[in-house]
Amino acid sequence: MQNEKYKKEPLDFGNYYHLYNRGNNGIDIFFENGNYDYFLKLYHQYIHPIAETFAWCLMKNHFHFLVYIRNEKDVLTDLLEYSTVDKPRVLDPSKQFGHLFNAYTQAINKKYSRTGSLFEKPFERKRVSSEKYFQNLIYYIHNNPVHHGVTKTMKEYSWSSYGSFLSDKSTNLNRDEVIEIYGSKENFIDYHGDEQDLENIFDLIIDRS
């Protein structure tokens, strides 16, 4: 029987989630710029068909995503990629993330002549159940590089979705929906420019380090 400690709630269709994972025992998962790009490419292949993405941040040894798992009828089945040739009888969003992690791990192990697990298992997930939590969580995700002392401002960091919200370039992010929650692009920028008090969502945040 699986240890209760390691059981995680399934990713249910039609729900918002904060997803987090880090390197096994805290090891790095990204070693050079090309790794970040490749991870995002795999993310688009495996996850975009089953989930809408609202915010993300890739750090050297961990990452955060805020996603909405599409309703089953809205899954982009024609774009789905599986880890096996055959289409599974039942589509499982959690397994799609597993396929992403496995594909990335295999590529990294081959490139850097390493073996073994790269990510901790199972990956962490918290359901997002309120608009205030959603709003604060986007700030929390974008503020990660500042919080960890990697950069002084969110804008300086290349591997998060923050820059996409300042741009008019096409994106797979649900940018318009996020901006609407803040009221306007200017409000979004102002909100991220202030130091937010996250005490009211600390019990909902997966990783506080």
Protein architecture, described:
- With 209 residues, the chain is of the alpha+beta class.
- It has helices at 33-46, 93-111, 131-142, 144-147, 162-166, 175-182, 185-193, and strands spanning 16-22, 51-58, 62-69, 124-128.
- Strands 2-3-1-4 form a four-stranded antiparallel β-sheet.
- The chain starts with 15 loop residues before the first strand and ends in a 16-residue tail after the last helix.
- 30% of the residues are buried.
- The model has no long low-confidence stretch (mean pLDDT 90).
Oligomer: single chain
How big a fraction of the residues is strand? 5-15%
| SSE topology string | EHEEHEHHHHH
What's the tally of helices? 7
Percent in helix: 25-40%
* Largest sheet geometry: 4 strands, antiparallel
Mean pLDDT over all positions: 90
Structural class: alpha+beta
- Terminus-to-terminus distance: 31 Å
Our Rg estimate from Cα atoms comes to 17 Å
Largest beta sheet: strand ordering: 2-3-1-4
Extract low-pLDDT stretches. none
Shape: globular
How many beta-strand segments? 4
In short:
The chain has 209 residues and is an alpha+beta fold. 34% of the residues lie in helices and 13% in strands.
Any descriptors?
209 residues, alpha+beta, 4-stranded antiparallel β-sheet, 7 helices
